[in-house]
Each structure stands twice: as C-alpha cells, then as structure tokens.
Amino acid sequence: MENKQRQKVLVSVDTEGPAGALPVERMIYSQARDGKEYGIFFLMDMFEKENIKALFFVDIPEIVDHDEDKITKVMLDISSRGHDIGVHVHPDHLADINRRYLWQYTYDEQYEIIARCTDFYNKILKKQPLSFRAGRYGANNDTIEVLKKLGYLYDMSQFYASRYCLIEPPITWNRVVRYGESQLKEVPVTTVKSFATPFYSRNDQIDSGRIPSEFRRFMKEIEKTGSVDVVSMFFHSFQFIDWRLNPDAPRFSKKKYNAVIKNMEYLKQQNVDFITEKDLMNITENQDDKLGPVDCSKGLIPYYYFVIRAVGVLRDRMVRNV
Q1: DSSP per-residue letters across 79-139
Q2: What digits encode the pLDDT tens for the residues 295-314?
Q3: Is 3 a member of any domain?
Q4: I want to staple 189 with a disulfide (CB 3.0 to 4.6 A). Which of 42, 48, 155, 159 is the partner?
C-alpha cells in the first residue's frame, strides 16, 4: 500500500443494551460474571493504545427503558475520554415496541423521535450531534429528510441490499455521497458481496468480529478495487461477551476477543489510516456511486464461510433474536 493512498478506516461502536434486566450494566459496560467489565471502557482502553479515536453511536431512546441518568453517564464517560458520540436510534424504546424500524413510522413520528434524541444530546453534551445511525439500518427517505432538517452532517444507515434499510433507491454502495444540495452526506456501511449463486446472493458488512481469514479476504479485495472511500469498522459495546444465553450473567468470550485482535492487527500491518468523525469533512464526496459492492463471491471459499455464518445466525436466533 506504500505506492497508493492509504485505506481510510472509521471505527464505530453501536452502544446499546438490547436485552436483560440490567442492560446498561451488562451490555454497555459489559460487566461479566467474573466481575470485570469488557464494554465501553475496555474498548476505549484498546483503541487508545493504538491512538484510535472512535465514534460511539449511543442508543438515546434507551433513556425511556433504561433510565435517563444511566444513559447520561454513558455519554459523559465516553466524552470524558475524548471519543466522538453519534446518535443511534432504536425507536421501539421510545415509541412503539411493535415497530422496531424507523421506516415503520410516519415522517412526523420520525421527526418527533429523532428531534427528542437530538435535544437530549444537546442538553448533555452542549453541542449539536453530527452523525446518525438508524437501529438495524432501518432508515428510509423520510429519515434522510428529518436528518437534513435537524442539521446532521453524516448519516451512516445505508446498508446496500439489506432488507432492513429502505432508503430507495439506494444512494450508494461504498462511496461517500452527498444528498443533493444539502449538507448531509451518506457514509455507508461497507458492503461486500460475500456469496452468490444464480438463485441467491448475500451482501455482508465489514465487522470487527468477523472470522479473521474472511476479514483479510474482504479487506484485500477492498484494497485491490479501491472502491471504498471509508471502511466502516463496526463494533458493539457488548462485543466481547457471550450475552445471548444469559444477558444477566454473561461470560467474557476469548474467542470473540481473539478474532477482533487479529483483525485489528491486520489493519495495522496494512498501514491503514484510522480517521475520526472530524476527518469526514475532508472526504471528497461523489455525485453517485456506480462501482457496486466489492465482489468476494467468486470461487468455492465463499461456500465455506456461508455455511459457517448461516449456522451461527440460526444458533443466535434460536437462543435470542433481538
């Protein structure tokens, strides 16, 4: 990578507590049954050792279900360490438990939900939020119009070909694209075509916990094509615990931890440029994106990873589907 531009990588952390009796303590701070914490403080320690400033998307609607003071503390704990905070919205916490996606709400309902979260952010951090991500990628065109009106600079909800994302038509695969003449840019979920047959194809995202050999395979293709402006490197606050079997007494997962460490080591070896939310201002946006998702679906190897992933997804959903 020495003779070409270094690949830009933005580390983001969906910070949320989707299950259990003590979701903030067990899934945001990730206090395991051994008494140690493996959540946001653990992640910040890890990032800071590598001089990485991450963007933590805090699920602000959890102020209703999980206590306003607790979510306030989460935001202040992150801010005090110098990391950035974006607004994450799983609307069912704030509005209707039977409507889990923002696209299930009218424009006016979405405006009310997102404006309330924006006001709370302003009240706690004394500044305007810049970045937004819809829970489960569940944004639609109304969401984008709301974000424009509320003055956001970056949306990070577009996940091309995800059935949960209803921004139609999809504005981008992997390029940073501006919405018309507005100030709002789409910084999309990094999309990789991971599997394809004549009857079925699958797109996946770059995730910090992906099987290291598959992660390297994805990143090598991204580097080769040069079609991804910013690799969106996903983490969750509960990244290192096995929470699905027992969210009230989770265990630290050495397997999950080792996968993340190997993937981060690979990025360091590739000398990528870990950027911050502020650096997004300097990314030249495109008028459109015609390059498509990065294609990693050729050959027999994708079948192997597809089976492993399918088994894992089925197992997780049988235990706890959130």
Answers
A1: HHTT-EEEEEE-GGGTS-TT--SGGGS-HHHHHHHHHHHHHHHHHHHSS---EEEEGGG--
A2: 999 999 988 888 887 776 66
A3: no
A4: 159
